[in-house]
Design goal:
heterotrimer, A alpha/beta (483), B mainly alpha (147), C alpha+beta (459), A: 483 residues, Rossmann fold, 2 domains, four-stranded parallel sheet, two-stranded parallel sheet, 43% helix, 10% strand, C: 3 domains, seven-stranded mixed sheet, 33% helix
Chain lengths: 483, 147, 459
């Protein structure tokens, strides 16, 4: 979901209020491929904004690591919170089962009874679970472990840098695994921070505006008897969790977002995680990112919390217009359509131009040669060559995955020409052949808009100019209102 | 004005008689009451340079970004050179000349070359300064020489 | 935006005279309105200052249409008023004239003269003259010409023996005034007589003639055109010692003088009072009182130059360069309106130059040249040459002189006339005769410049 949020922020989607976003990903899955890809995208994003700033339309929201807040803007830090003592550790060793007294042992046995499967697909006792791949659908295990969060260094840094107007948004999945376990625990840690002596700004934390997103089942898993993840358990566990939230969690939240998809489609590979859990991007993640933006757009007056209790709680769900298996912008309701349509179209046009036409235009067109000039040297430099292109490749991959999934989100026909790029709005030239959208038109617009302002560097020019140009194009050709 | 034009063109070394004809030595060989060809050719040259500038930088520029490169500049300049040469070469013959004046094709070619040269300079100057080049969208940085 | 340069060209004061002329001639007629329109446009532009006068403009238009072979009717200019005057013809009937009148030659010339005179005069009155004037009562000129015989001369009487030429001239001049021009026909041969010293006699006559002419100049604006003609002579010739010499079928010169105001003389010349075609006229000399020197139409022409120069104007050249130290250029001049006649101006000795470093030569323009556009309307070509080119205002003046032919045709000893054919074409004392007239017209005049041409040369 963070990856989708990153992509949306890169494409220019921006909350109404200017927020800096600090993602903290809590996942013991060090080898989680998805996590790796997300972090890589975040790193590219950060390097891009370091170079060109956040006033350029694209990449216009600041993303920072937790640690960088402390050291005031210097690089460094990670986006992940690594759970301690989970590497190659069995659950029972985590809380030192063997050193417990007899009664506690018995209690543990009772609470953590049951069987599960390990990474070698062998059936083992719950207490024997090795934890470096998450809690494999056992939130009862996870909640114990994630309690360490409130004593962590990361939590302290988080609290130190927490201001009165800052907000918190917690994203988790409701079905099994890390997410279900961590969410209530973390929420409690924050609201009850006053109880910890070594945590500063506890008052702010207690009365902070907190939003949460819970993702209900949206994917199908291959039936694999040998995997510890079991599909039929999902529904049961979902119900249980929802009931628990209703009673213990919802009242602490200012806003709660629910997302899910009843469609049961192509199954994901039933991979518990050791081969790198590489889940393909799904539209639900895009909707989730929209939830985050929505939360940031809510006014302060609606998020008042007193004594750790929000004055009112709001619950939101997400809907699309048509129950179609193959989504384009037309299938979305107006709000999403305007937001996503405009930003993603702009960013995709930007991407397509760089892929297909930059070679032709570089050092030839006025927008490239005007000062500061974006020339071939620039093209081969680190900013473009590795950061921007790296990010854009990840963007391509993300779009491809969204399109290949079921339910698929495929707003663009990326292999086609410029006229037919946006699937729900194919462009047509009039009978004279005028109005054709070609790279020539694109170049002319770039040249035209380039003339109108000064840029601090070639890189900044690239981002800002293309944002403005694609903005005008989406306005003219697709009818999207510009902001 | 005519004297200045005559001076810069006559640097190219054609016969005095052609210069006299261009100044407007009329058919009765009495006085300069004929058409002032120097002025006419010069003004046409300026018009062509201006026109070609507008064509490349403003008119074609409105339709496409493809003809904004250095190559386009050279093509436009060469079209101007050809047009100016052709006009200067053929115009003097269309005006009846005093039969006392003797000049031939060689002189007309030198005159044509002079006009083509000055036309090229004119085009270069038009495109060298940021105005009026800045009125163009795509070709606003296309120039022979950046002062 | 395309239009501005084109408008600029057309608005840039480029009224093209030639194009306008070609345009209005399209229908074959130039109406007064069209003419006025052209005139108005010309007056606006300094370039056409030379054409601001109607006469100059009409002349230019005629020339232009002639060159372009366009037939156009031009608006009629103002009509000149004719001044009518009488002409008295005096035929000298002394004995020396007998040799001429036996032949048809002179008679036919006289008849021709009388016919021509009638064209521009009111009345032609006929007379004989020797020591007195004998009027011939109203006779038609044909009869008069026929009646030029020895017999009728005898019958008319008068003292036919000696001719005191000065007295004859004085008498004729006495009878000349603004309304009466005179024609005197004679051989003008002085007869000093056997006993008189010829030269002293001629000198005395010269003074007397000078006196008579000066007197007349005091009374009227006088001009004299003297024509030399040839005719057959068979008869007795009286030489300077009054010896008789028999001549048979010899071609001898005789003279016709036309005396009147400058305008009358001009009219007579324009109307070819003595016809040129029948071969009798040899040459002429015209005398008139010169005031300030006149300026004929002239222009520097391009061809035939040595070295190089640019035109500032038709009389001002600049950037003059030599070719190997030599510089030469030509000037076309129109002497057609000068009474002295085209032949007079072909003699380079009449010219003076302000800068002696230049040499001058003159010739008449050939008929081929006269047909060309550049030379039509001009009569002569003056060539100036120098080895010392410098910035200069060159003044070329033509002086009033006794024409060269006078000396060539004058004799101081005609005794051998019977055998010497060179003597036969001469007239005794001619130089003194015309010398007297010449001196009379120069009386009170400081320099006898009749023509002045100025050319500015900038190096």
């Amino acid at each position: 979901m963070i990856k989708s949020l990153t992509m949306l922020l890169a494409s220019g989607l921006k909350p109404l209020n200017d927020f800096e976003i600090v993602p903290v990903i809590i996942d013991p899955h060090k080898d989680n491929e998805d996590l790796k890809r997300t972090v890589s995208a975040l790193n590219n994003y950060q390097r891009i904004t370091e170079k060109v700033g956040t006033g350029n339309g694209f990449f216009s929201t600041k993303l920072s690591t937790l640690q960088s807040l402390d050291t005031k803007g210097s690089l460094g830090g990670t986006y992940t919170f690594i759970l301690k003592d989970v590497e190659s550790t069995k659950f029972k060793d985590y809380f030192s089962y063997n050193s417990l007294g007899e009664e506690n042992k018995a209690l543990a046995d009772l609470i953590f009874s049951g069987r599960t499967i390990n990474s070698a697909r062998e059936e083992i006792d719950l207490l024997e679970i090795p934890m470096d791949i998450g809690f494999v659908g056992n939130p009862n295990v996870g909640s114990v472990v994630l309690n360490q969060f409130k004593h962590s260094e990361e939590f302290r840094v988080f609290a130190n840098n927490f201001g009165k107007d800052d907000r918190i948004f917690i994203i988790s999945s409701i079905f099994g695994g890390t997410g279900a376990a961590g969410f209530p625990t973390i929420l409690k840690s924050i609201r009850d921070a006053a109880g910890q002596s070594d945590i500063s700004n506890a008052g702010f934390l207690r009365d902070s505006a907190i939003g949460a997103l819970t993702v209900l089942p949206y994917f199908n898993i291959e039936v694999d008897e040998k995997s510890p993840i079991n599909k039929s358990d999902f529904i049961e566990k979902t119900k249980a969790a929802l009931e628990y939230y209703r009673r213990n969690v919802n009242s602490s939240l200012n806003m709660m977002y629910y997302l899910g998809d009843r469609h049961v489609g192509k199954a994901y590979e039933n991979d518990p995680g050791s081969n790198g859990q590489k889940n393909k991007a799904h539209f639900v993640e895009v909707a989730g990112a929209l939830a985050i933006i929505d939360f940031m757009n809510v006014g302060d007056s609606e998020l008042i919390t007193m004594n750790g209790r929000p004055v009112n709680s709001v619950y939101k769900e997400y809907a699309i217009r048509n129950n179609s298996q193959d989504l384009s912008f037309a299938e979305l309701c107006d709000g999403s359509r305007n937001l996503l349509g405009r930003s993603l179209t702009q960013f995709t046009l930007f991407r397509k131009y760089l892929q297909e036409n930059l070679e032709e235009s570089i050092e030839r067109q006025a927008w490239s040669t005007s000062q500061p000039s974006f020339d071939k040297r620039q093209k081969n430099a680190q900013f473009y060559g590795s950061n921007l292109l790296g990010f854009l490749r990840q963007y391509d991959e993300w779009l491809d995955e969204l399109g290949a999934n079921t339910r698929s989100f495929r707003p663009f026909d990326r292999q086609s020409d410029l006229m037919n790029l946006v699937r729900d709005k194919p462009l047509q030239a009039n009978w004279l052949g005028m109005g054709k959208f070609k790279y020539d038109t694109f170049d002319t617009k770039l040249n035209q808009l380039d003339n109108r302002q000064a840029y601090s560097s070639a890189e900044q020019k690239l981002i800002s100019l293309f944002y403005k140009t694609t903005g005008e194009i989406t306005g003219e050709k697709y009818g999207y209102q510009q902001i | 004005m005519t004297d200045f034009i005559a001076m810069i063109y006559e640097w190219f070394g054609y016969q005095t008689d052609l210069g006299t004809h261009l100044r407007g030595w009329d058919i009765t060989c009495d006085a300069f009451s004929g058409s002032n060809l120097y002025l006419e050719v010069f003004l046409i040259m300026i018009a062509i340079s201006l026109g070609l500038f507008m064509l490349m930088y403003l008119i074609i520029d409105r339709f496409t970004a493809k003809f904004s490169s250095k190559l386009s500049w050279w093509i436009t300049a060469l079209v101007g050179v050809a047009m100016n040469f052709g006009i200067a070469f053929s115009l003097p013959k269309t005006v009846d000349r005093c039969d006392q004046l003797i000049f031939g094709s060689g002189d007309l070619m030198l005159f044509g070359t002079a006009n083509a040269f000055w036309g090229l300079i004119c085009f270069i100057l038009l495109t060298s300064f940021s105005f009026p080049r800045s009125l163009s969208t795509n070709a606003r940085l296309t120039t022979f020489w950046k002062p | 935006m395309w239009m501005f340069p084109l408008l600029a060209i057309s608005a840039c004061g480029s009224f093209s005279l030639q194009d306008e002329l070609a345009l209005i001639a399209g229908d074959g007629v130039v109406t007064q309105e069209e003419y006025d329109g052209i005139k108005a446009s010309i007056l606006k532009d300094d370039k056409f200052a030379a054409l601001s006068k109607d006469t100059a403009l009409i002349a230019y238009m005629k020339k232009y249409y002639a060159i372009k072979n366009i037939n156009v009717v031009l608006p009629v200019g103002s009509v000149e008023k004719k001044r009518l005057f009488d002409v008295n013809v005096y035929f000298e009937n002394s004995f020396s004239m007998d040799g001429y009148i036996g032949q048809a030659d002179l008679k036919s010339s006289v008849y021709d003269l009388l016919v021509n005179t009638k064209q521009f005069s009111r009345e032609v009155k006929l007379n004989y003259i020797n020591n007195k004037v004998i009027a011939v009562p109203s006779t038609d000129i044909g009869t008069f010409s026929q009646m030029l015989t020895r017999k009728s001369f005898k019958a008319k009487g008068g003292k036919r023996g000696t001719s005191d030429i000065a007295a004859v001239i004085r008498e004729v001049l006495r009878r000349t005034d603004a309304g009466n021009a005179s024609v005197l026909i004679s051989d003008f041969v002085f007869s000093p007589g056997a006993k008189t010293n010829a030269v002293s006699y001629l000198e005395m006559q010269q003074v007397a003639i000078k006196d008579a002419v000066i007197d007349q100049l005091g009374k009227q604006d006088l001009s004299i055109a003297i024509f030399q003609l040839r005719a057959d002579f068979t008869g007795t010739y009286f030489d300077y010692k009054s010896r008789q010499v028999a001549l048979h079928q010899v071609t001898r010169p005789y003279y016709i003088w036309f005396m009147g105001t400058a305008e009358q003389v001009s009219l007579a010349l324009k109307n070819h009072i003595v016809s040129e075609e029948n071969g009798h006229l040899i040459q002429n000399a015209v005398f008139f009182k010169t005031g300030a020197p006149g300026v004929p139409r002239y222009k520097v022409v391009n061809k035939g130059r040595i070295g190089d120069f640019k035109f500032e104007n038709s009389d001002h050249i600049s950037a003059a360069k030599t070719a190997n130290g030599d510089f030469a250029f030509n000037i076309a001049v129109d002497f057609s309106s000068n009474l002295k006649g085209l032949d007079y101006f072909s003699d380079k000795d009449i010219y003076g130059l302000s800068n002696i470093a230049y040499s001058i030569s003159v010739r008449k323009l050939s008929s081929a040249e006269l047909h060309s556009a550049s030379f039509s309307g001009y009569t002569h070509l003056i060539t100036l040459r120098t080895k010392k080119l410098q910035t200069d205002q060159l003044v070329i003046s033509a002086m009033d002189k006794v024409p060269q032919w006078v000396n060539a045709c004058s004799s101081l000893d005609d005794s051998a006339i019977g055998t010497d054919i060179t003597e036969q074409v001469r007239t005794f004392g001619l130089s003194h005769l015309l010398g007297g007239v010449y001196q009379a017209f120069g009386q009170g005049v400081n320099d006898r410049k009749i023509i002045e041409i100025k050319i500015k040369i900038d190096k």
